[in-house]
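Researcher: Structure prediction, please.
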Amino acid sequence: MSIQLGQAAPDFSLFDTEKQAVKLSELKGKNVVLLFFPAAFTSVCTRELCGIRDGLARYSALNAEVLGISVDLPFAQKAFKTQENLNFSLLSDFNKEVSQAYGAYYDSWILNLRGVAKRSAFVVDKEGIVRYAEVLEDAGQEPNYAAIEATLATL
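Model: Predicted structure follows.
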């Protein structure tokens, strides 16, 4: 399934690194940036998420909350978040339901690993509508941050 611009974002409830449930529908009234990433502690994911960490003030100024989502366990995500001093929530999609719902899912990834989130970015507006969607087939690429910020600036 692929997400279309203008459609309602699929709702979800996922656990963060503090084992607290985060439900997308409870964030209505805020713009939300969903960043799916393949795996904690990998080079491109670390570069991507540290870049978001360093530029988080730009997203906050655009009334946006950033959520990183991977299929890693919350415990591994917590170690990753602590090591990299990440200042936004990481959510565990260990059951792979949300990655699949957003079309951000590798059936087979490197080393024949199955069921890993594709590097992807979605902007969900204050009413829960998808305003930006980018799903990358090549995990070595990063999302178009300028396009994400430009989208947020219009909301």
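Model: The chain is about 30% helix and 25% strand.
Researcher: Thanks, that helps.
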